[in-house]
DNA sequence: ACCGTTTTTCATCACGCGATGAAATATACA
DNA sequence: TGTATATTTCATCGCGTGATGAAAAACGGT
C-alpha cells in the first residue's frame, strides 16, 4: 500500500476513516462490518483504525453519535398550527429521511438495531424520551388516560418507522416510488388522528 | 461429546438441528448465526449439520421455508363484513405474531431481512404478491386510481410492520405492553381508512 | 450372523477477524 | 539544525468460521 510512516499532505485521514465506517456500517449493520473493510475503503492500514479508535464499538459510537439532532426540527413543528401537526410531522420525517445522508443514517441505525440488541435499547430510549415523549407532553389531550396517549404516540411512531422500512429497506415499489406529497396526503391524517384527538 | 458412530435410540436428530437453527437464526439473524452455534445447541458435531444440509443457505431455507401460510387466514378475513375489515386484519396479525412461534418467526425473518439483501427481496415479493396484492384485488375501490390504492395498501402494511417492530424488536414499552384489544381499537380504524374508503 | 447403509464424530484446512507492539516516516517546535 | 511527537505501515498472535474427507458405531434387511 502506501510506504510506511506519516503521509506528506495534510490529509484528514481520521475523517476519511469515519466516512468509510459510516458507509460500511450503513450497509450490513454492526456485526457484518469489519474494521478491515473500513480500513480498505479508507485506503488505510487496519491498525490505523485501531490507532484512532479504541475498537469497533468506539468507532460505531463515533459514527452514529454525530447527530443531525432532530430536537430543533421537532420544536418548530410543535409550535405550528395544531390542526396541521400530522401533515407537518409526516413531511418533516420524510424529508429528513429522503435526503441522502438521512437515508444512510436510517439504514445504518436500522440494520444495527436489528442485529445488535444494545443498539435497540439505545434507539428505544432515545425515541421514547427525546422524540415521542416530547410530543405527548406538547399535545396532551387530558380527556384520555396517559396510558392511552402513550400507546397512540407509539403507534404514530410505528407508522413512521414502518413507512421508512417499506420505503428504504424492503423497497416495496408502491411505497418506495410514491412522491412525498402523496404519502403526506395519506399519512398526515393518520398521525393527526393518533396524536390530536 | 458423544462417542463416534450412530446413536442408539431413534432420535430425530435432523429435526433437532432444524429446531436449534430456528432458535439461533431468530436471535441474531443470518450472518451472526454460525453453524457451530447451531450444532452446539443441538448437541451435535458441526460436521453433522453439513451432512444433513448442503450449507448455511440450505439450512436457512429449510427453517424459513416451512411456513404457517397466511393465505388461509387472509381469505377468511376478506370474506367477512367489509366494515369490520380493518379491525379483523389488525386482530389477525397481532394474534399471529403474539403466539410464541409467530413472534419467533417474525424476529427471524426481520433480522435476516435487515442484514441480508437477498432475504429482503424475497420478503418484498411475498408481501406484495401473496398478501397485499390480494387485499387490493379484493377490496378494490374503483373511484381511486390503482396507483393510489396500492400506495394505501402499502401504507397499511407499513403500519403493521412498524407496529410489529415497535412491539417485538424495539420493545417500546408503550406499545409492547399494551393489550391486543387496545391496539386493535386504535389500529383497526387506521387500516380501515387505508383500505376501504 | 452377516453385510451394506445410515448416522455420527474426529482431525484437519484455509481464511478472515480483532488486537497488539514495533518500526519507519513526516511534521512541529526549539 | 536537531529532537520530540504524531502519523502510518508491518509483522504477527490467537480465535472462530465454513468446509471436507475419513473413520467408527448403530441400524436394517437377508
From TrEMBL, chains A, B:
DNA-binding residue intervals: 34-53
Superkingdom of this protein's organism: Bacteria
Matches recorded under InterPro entries: Homeodomain-like_sf, HTH-type_TetR-like_transc_reg, HTH_TetR, Tet_transcr_reg_TetR-rel_C_sf, TetR_C_16
Organism: Nostocoides japonicum T1-X7
The protein's name in its UniProt record: Putative transcriptional regulator
Signal peptide: none
Record keywords: DNA-binding
Keyword Membrane: no
Transmembrane segments: none
PANTHER family given in the database record: HTH-TYPE TRANSCRIPTIONAL REGULATOR RUTR, TRANSCRIPTIONAL REGULATORY PROTEIN
Domain HTH tetR-type: 11-71
A GO term for molecular function: transcription cis-regulatory region binding
Amino acid at each position: 500500500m502506501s510506504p510506511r510512516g506519516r503521509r506528506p499532505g495534510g490529509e484528514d485521514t481520521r475523517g476519511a476513516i469515519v466516512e468509510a465506517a459510516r458507509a460500511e456500517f450503513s450497509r450490513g449493520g454492526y456485526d457484518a462490518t469489519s474494521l478491515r473493510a473500513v480500513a480498505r475503503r479508507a485506503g488505510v492500514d487496519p491498525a490505523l483504525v485501531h490507532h484512532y479508535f479504541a475498537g469497533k464499538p468506539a468507532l460505531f459510537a463515533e459514527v452514529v453519535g454525530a447527530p443531525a439532532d432532530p430536537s430543533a426540527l421537532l420544536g418548530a413543528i410543535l409550535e405550528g398550527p395544531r390542526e396541521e401537526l400530522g401533515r407537518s410531522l409526516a413531511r418533516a420525517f420524510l424529508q429528513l429521511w429522503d435526503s441522502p445522508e438521512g437515508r444512510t443514517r436510517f439504514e445504518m441505525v436500522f440494520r444495527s438495531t436489528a442485529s445488535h440488541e444494545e443498539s435497540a435499547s439505545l434507539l428505544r430510549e432515545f425515541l421514547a424520551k427525546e422524540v415521542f415523549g416530547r410530543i405527548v407532553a406538547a399535545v396532551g389531550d387530558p380527556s384520555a388516560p396517559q396510558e392511552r396517549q402513550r400507546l397512540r404516540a407509539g403507534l404514530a411512531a410505528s407508522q413512521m418507522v414502518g413507512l421508512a422500512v417499506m420505503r428504504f429497506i424492503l423497497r416495496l415499489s408502491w411505497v418506495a416510488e410514491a412522491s412525498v406529497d402523496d404519502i403526506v396526503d395519506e399519512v398526515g391524517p393518520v398521525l393527526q388522528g393518533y396524536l390530536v384527538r
